[in-house]
Amino acid sequence: MTARRKGLALAAIHLLLVASLGGKYLLDRVTRPRVWARAVPVDPYTPFRGRYIALSLEVQSDLDVPRGEERPAVELYASDGQLRAKASAQETHTHLRSGIVGADTVAVLSESVVLFIPAEGEDPSASRRQNLWVEVTVPRRGLPRPIQLGEMRDGAVVPLESL
């Protein structure tokens, strides 16, 4: 096999890997529940972050999360249009911690989710810090996958594209 054929075969394998991952995310977006979750922008200091914003998601939970501690091994699910968490018997990588949203102490995911911001336009998290929501896909395991940002208006979340 020539070097050219080896290169083309490697490129084809890489293309299949990327396409399979994209297909999995697309299938999850179609088949898994989607909910709006209240978000708090987090600004970790990373000079190579690019046009992404990190979001800490509020989670509805009956689990007690003492201030300053984490609640390990939780399972995320969607119920009544809300992102919820329940204790999991299995070890998971999803953890809850107590966080402050406005004047309230609430349960938030320990890890932030990131959302790409297009190059044109401003950072929407700067002007809507207290009223920012994000639509997420809730996978079977792992962190929710953000889809779009929104803002609460008159008791309903309105996507930022339509503002």
Structural description of this entry:
With 163 residues, the chain is of the alpha+beta class. It folds into two domains: 1-31; 34-162, no CATH class. The protein contains two helices and eleven strands. The protein has helices spanning 3-31, 124-127, and strands at 34-42, 52-61, 70-71, 74-79, 82-87, 96-101, 104-109, 113-116, 132-137, 145-153, 156-159. Strands 1, 2, 3, 4, 5, 6, 7, 8, 9, 10 and 11 form an eleven-stranded mixed β-sheet that branches. A hairpin with a 2-residue loop joins β6 and β7. The longest helix has 29 residues, at 3-31. The chain is globular and about 65 Å long. It starts with a helix and ends with a strand.
Helix segment count?
2
Q: Give the strand content.
A: 35-45%
**Largest sheet data:** 11 strands, mixed
Radius of gyration: 19 Å
Shape: globular
Number of domains: 2
Distance between the termini: 56 Å
Could you provide a short overview of the structure?
The chain is an alpha+beta fold. It has helices at about 5-30, 125, and strands at about 35-40, 50-60, 70, 75-80, 80-85, 95-100, 105-110, 115, 130-135, 145-155, 155-160.
Describe the secondary structure blueprint for this structure.
Elements: H1 3-31, E1 34-42, E2 52-61, E3 70-71, E4 74-79, E5 82-87, E6 96-101, E7 104-109, E8 113-116, H2 124-127, E9 132-137, E10 145-153, E11 156-159
Parallel strand pairs: 2-5
Antiparallel strand pairs: 1-2, 1-9, 2-7, 2-8, 3-6, 4-5, 6-7, 9-10, 10-11
Name the features.
163 residues, alpha+beta, 2 domains
